[in-house]
Amino acid sequence: MDSKVTLREKIGYGFGDAASSMFWKIFTFYLAIFYTDVFGIPAAVAGTMFLLTRIWDTANDPIMGIIGDRTNTRWGKFRPYLLWASIPFAIIGVLLFSTPNLDLTGKIVYAYVSYTLMMMAYTSINVPYASLLGVMTAKSTERTSLAAYRMIFAFGGSLLVVAIFQPLVDFFDQAVQKEAAYQLTMVVIGVIAVIMFTLTFAWTRERITPPKSQENNLKNDFKNLLNNIPWFVLLGAGVMTLIFNSVRDGVAMYYFKYYIIDETAIAISNATFAFSTMYLFLGQATNMLGVIMAKPISARLGKRKTFMYAMAAAAVLSSLFFMVHRDNVIWVYILQALVSFCAGIIFPLLWSMYADCADYSEYKTGRRATGLVFSASSMSQKLGWTLGGAITLWLLAFFGFEANVVQTPDTIKGLKYMISIVPAIGAVLSGVFMYFYKLDDNTMNKIEKELASRREKDN
Fold first, then answer.
1. Helix, strand or coil for residue 274?
2. Which of 9, 124, 205, 374 could form a disulfide with 131 if both were Cys (CB 3.0 to 4.6 A apart)?
């Protein structure tokens, strides 16, 4: 079996996460402040909505993984969903940032419905996309390379959306109302995402299939998953990592608007780039540097140790944010660069390790359920982001936040806690989970050789 992945395939695979990450970063950076300051619902209500909608969405991820495992087309099991789901994904993204003329109760209902649909659309395209990594190649080193391409493109998509989102809103705001400006901005970004997903579909291929003797048996798939201890470790580490990331990102716009007192840093023609935009852009750029360094560092230290050291450093550096005064914006930028570099290192490792968990399950049980295993990636991502988003909004309410007014000293102190100490706790817990991860590089080399032998006999 040829497990070599071409450069074009790696680029094509990367486009998929560039598209997803554009939307994900919009959710992370702008959705909370859109709900409180534009859409017009209370912070505590929005936070509760983020949490309650997870009841369905938590089940939705493994369901999509099961569906993907049982899909059989001439294009493979997972690639078709990149084509089928991309347009609905973009349309619902536009609806999410639309503001209908409703009373408060109507707006809350609309927010619940549109947000739930958005997360379902995200699941329908992102679980198959994540699972694709597990079937494009059998080599663990190639998967790390694919994951690195994925994350480089992911942060490239994030850089793009950070660079254009607020300037587009400001541009459209000159011709239409603020609410419509957000909607039109999402139309532009949705079109870009559809093009990227289509390229991923067209440029990739699936190589790994379940053993020919394997029969569809949902009970056995779940039984094997529940006995896959490394999967549970990654689930916990992934959730804590996303809490770390989403609390930092979610409070950033509030931190700049109400503490730093956001101003225009750069103006180019009619486009303006505020201090907050530069902060977010810097974070994505240094995330990319971390992604690039993930493979050489992990090749020397191993994936597990690299992950733990990066999270420990991120926790320490995040804590230092609390000490920075609003006049020292340069230190805000320096710490942002350092923390984001550390965070960038761990993400390609996580995705590569999910593929390793799928191999581990096949090695132990003789059965392969790639979609179900990879649904953990989407589930942990959305669960971590949701908990982080809910925590962010609840803490805003707890610290007495009120939209579009001067904040009290206690609220300002709360914002500083939320961009420093709270995410640091998430980083520490993520590293603690990873301490218990036992699939080191030597173990994976042994598993890779054994599976290659089995597949050769099976064919």
1. strand
2. 374
Measured CA to CA, the distance from residue 389 to residue 385 in angstroms comes to 6
Residue 420 sits in a domain whose CATH number is: 1.20.1250.20
Give yes or no for a contact between 308 and 107, defined as CB atoms under 8 angstroms apart.
Answer: no
To 10 degrees, what angle do helices 370-398 and 54-69 make? 160
Is 421 part of a structural domain of the chain? yes
How far is C-alpha 132 from the chain's CA centre? Answer: 16
Q: How many domains does the chain have?
A: 1
Separation between Cα atoms, residue 35 and residue 29, nearest integer Å:
12
Which stretch of DSSP H or E encloses residue 203?
helix 178-203
Give the burial string for 155-184 (b: 16+ CB within 10 Å, else e).
Answer: bbbbbbbbbbbbbbbbbbbeeeeebebbbb
State the residue for tokens 């992934």.
238
Bridge partners (DSSP) of residue 59 are none
Is 386 within a domain?
yes
Element (DSSP H or E) covering residue 31: none
pLDDT value at position 124?
94
* CB within 8 Å of 149: residues ≥ 6 apart: 10, 11, 13, 14
3-state secondary structure 275-324: HHHHHHHHHHHHHHHHHHHHHHHHHHHCHHHHHHHHHHHHHHHHHHHHHC
Residue reference for tokens 């550390």: 342
Contacts of 444 (CB under 8 A, 6+ apart): 140, 356, 359
Q: Classify residue 316: in a domain, yes or no.
A: yes
The whole-number pLDDT of residue 451 equals 84
Token pair for 366: 């003789």
Number of neighbours of residue 117 by Cβ within 10 angstroms:
17
Residue 1 forms part of a structural domain: no
Range of the domain at 82: 7-458
Measured distance CA(391)–CA(442) in Å, rounded: 39
Contact partners, residue 342, CB within 8 Å, separation at least 6: 290, 310, 311, 313, 314, 317
| Model pTM above 0.70 | yes
* Residue 437, SS3 per DSSP: coil
Interhelix angle 104-136/54-69, nearest 10 degrees: 30
Residue 292 has pLDDT above 60, yes or no: yes
